[in-house]
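Quick illustration, no need to memorize.
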Amino acid sequence: MDLALADRVHDNLMQVNRVTGEAPGGELHEAPGELFFASASAMPFLNGVMRRRSDDPADDLLSRACDFFFERKRGFIVFGWPGDPALEQAAYKAGMFPVLERYPEMVCTKKLDAPDGELHAVASLADAQAYWDICEGAYASLGFPPGVFAEAFTPEDLLGDGVWACLATDDGRPVACASAWMTPGVGMIGWVAALPKARNKGMAAACTVAATNEALRRGADVVSLQASSMGESVYRSLGYEELFAYRLLGATPG
C-alpha cells in the first residue's frame, strides 16, 4: 500500500465527515490527529470516530468517544484501517462489533471517458434538494432509515466552493446523482445514488464519471471513494482500483 497516498485519501474522508458535524444539530470533537463527528441523525453510520495514521494506543481515545456519543444517547462507528491497527484492536478490546467487514477505499488518477446521458450540475437549492431526495429514495436499499438525509444534510452542503454535484435526469426528472468533495489535491466521490427505477441504466455511473473528471479538472491528482457492495464492481469497471479497505466497528449505548 502507498502509505502517503493512503494518508491523503484518509485525511480527505476525515474532512468530508466533518460536514455532518458542522451541520445544524451536529457536533464535532477534534484533537491532533483525531475526529469525533456527530450528525443530527442518530444513525450510527453518520456518527463516527477516525484517527490519522498512528502507532499510539487507542484505549483512552475510545473511552472518550464512548462518553461523547453515549451522552448523546447514540451509537457510533470506528473506522478501522491499515494505517492505525491500534485503533481497531482497541475497538475489539472494548467489545465493539463488526458492522461492515470490508469497506473498500478506491482511487482513480486519470480522466475517464465522457459520460452518456442527460446530466447537469447542481446549481440551485432546488437541484440540491432533488439530490438529497434521490439519496433518500436510493439508500433505503442499504438500510438507511426514512428521513436520515433531511436530518443530517442541508441543500447548502452541496453548493459550497469545495463541492461539485450533478444530477442525471430521465424525461426531465432527476433520478441519479454523485458529488465530488474537494480537499487540496484530493477529490472524494460521495453519495452516489440512483432511484430504484433508474438502476442498471448506467445513470449513477455516468454521474460518477462526471464527478471524477470535475475533481481532476479542479486540481485533484487523485480521486477517491468508499464503495458499497452494490457499487464496487461498477467502480472497478470505470477504472477505480482498491487502495485498502476500512473495517467499520460499531458501539451502542448500554
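DSSP finds seven helices and eleven strands in the chain.
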